[in-house]
Amino acid sequence: MSPQPQSAVGAPLSRVDGRLKVTGKAEYAAEHDIKGAVHAVIVDASIGRGRIRSIDTRAAEKHAGVLRVIHHRNAPKLPYRDNPGSNNPTGRRLRVFQDDLVLFHGQPVAVVVATTLEAAQHGASLVKVAYNAEQPSTDISKAEPGAPVPYARGDAEAGLRSSAVRLDLTYALARNHHNPMEPHATVARWDGDRLTVWDKTQWIVGTHDEIAAVFDLPSDAVRVINPFVGGGFGSGLRCWPHTIVAALAARVTRRPVKLVLSRKQMYFGTGFRPAYAYRLRLGSDRRGRLNAAIHDFDAETSSYETFFEAAGAPGQMLYSMPNVSQAYRQVPLDVNTPIWMRGPGFATGSYVIESALDELAHELGIDPIELRRRNEPEEDPSNDLPFSTRRLRECYTVGAREFGWDRRSQQPRARREGDWLIGMGMAAGVYHSGSNAAQARVRLDADGTALVETASSDMGPGTYTSQTQVAADALGLTMRAVTFRLGDSLYPPTPPHGGSQTMASVGSAVLDGCDQVRRQAIELAVGDEESPLYGVNADDVVVRNGRLHVQGTPARGETYKSLLARNGRSHLEARGSYAGPAQPERHSISAYNATFAEVAVDATLGLVRVRRMLGVYDAGRIISPKLAESQAIGGIVGGIGQALLEHTVTDHRDGRIVNASLADYLVPVNADVPEVGVIYLDGDDPDGNALGVKGLGEVVLVGVAPAIANAVFNATGRRVRELPITAEALL
User: Fold this and answer.
1) Theoretical Cys-Cys bridge with 516: which of 172, 498, 574, 596, CB 3.0 to 4.6 Å?
2) pTM
């Protein structure tokens, strides 16, 4: 079949939903104006562990406007069916208001429902809860880890002993919180036994299924709607307790209920990137060829669920190394359960590995890029699969040239500008290109316009725009002629909107559905005696701007509109699908990057300022360059936060998060963000999916923190192995 003309894919187009967002017409979860809705405010536990002794709700119930106060002594019992297809970690998920047990500071212990938000807020402050408190365990350095999750190849201990150069390094990574601009919110309405929920979520299908499981409802009795997400970074990848609270409150009060978490509540009402204690022992010969690595890492999780992320993956496959062993231990603490955060696992593992590679390069007197080149594998050492594409060498070459790497001094603390010490650093990054089964409904109407629907989400990367680009080219329509809808569980199912899998999964389903519809139209035309295309080989027909014509002979053809009208067809329709990656896997498929940083460190005060950054990416085919650049800038900004600012502080006496606000939990602002360069290598990855994409939302953050840390060392000669890097550590 002749290839379709590509005019939308690859073009730097503006967001199709941009006008809605900048004019305030895009409706986020809390903005849905549901008739008769009342307001709910959660009462949070003020202890870190123990039991509720008593709850006094009398003052709250007397307050004007308060309708109900719901807690474990008066709440209906909920079924909480198992939900094996969810993103819930193993363990026993939190059951709201089902018993008197307090598992972490901030756990919901009651909810106040009132006619106004102010009445609900004041009513919540009047609820008096007495506890039998116990000492919580919230310090990862003092808690007992669980059994290790092992990985091994070769004999790492023997390989380390035989290595001419050995490093024994210990790193600490702070807990990070997502802090999206839009708070988590839920509006719930019951219509008899049917429940509709407007919820901030990155997985419409997952939230739908979890609600159905908790309330023991048939699938068709639950509808979840979420057309816009104001940032997520992974915080919306599971259904959190507040969503269940809202639905429960709506059922008890028989009124629609709106529940919005406060900024403070988001620190314990949703998840976070877990803290890590990570020891790496690394061995090489004197030319820098890596021989052995032993990884021991402890990661925090909750006492009631066991959260796991792929922190070990980079250490298994990023470099050629015959002997590797890993022990990943979860440390159960009296905290709420962690969740994936941008670059999950890979950002953690890469920070340690890339910092250690920089230390080894300095020890051996080898340029850090050259050291990495000497350890490039020819195939994936973790599974012996060939790489689909792996263009890290090219990332190094392009990045070094564009960043001016040749101006870097091998000797730390060699460059100074007044009070400022100047240093340059780099790091490699990797993120597995995942995908899962997805579906999309495509309809071509008689007026020559198309409608595409999937139950995906868009938390900011531009799903509306990129999917419209794919559909427009596959159908041979202009962008204006295609309407793409998402964010409704009534649409065909899709996987979570995270893990850089949406373009590969949903995009492939959209492509398939649009290809089917286009082929239906072509077959209709070539079989229609009144069509100019009658009798033409269907494989020779392409569509451009809504007009079917013979490839190379544009004069011979007709429009969708005329074809469907003449044949009395109101529309053509198909359900596109993507089955997921090939099983068994035939290739190792990942996105890669080389990230470069230049920093200035005040020699007296220890203040770090990032002056320049550059990211060079091997991310397969780029559907939307304008959106891709935006993603890279956002990832780099997030990496600056991880490297220099972000750190959740817990009072271990009672488990309280001390800095649960945007005033005290520091994130990068405009003054922290330097000149940023972004380069995507041309090409695609056809082994992964029909679109040739690898995904780029995660990989753009991986490698940023170690590049900055390595630049700080080059500037100061001080190696800091704890994130974030603070002024105190450099004094």
Assistant:
1) 574
2) 0.97
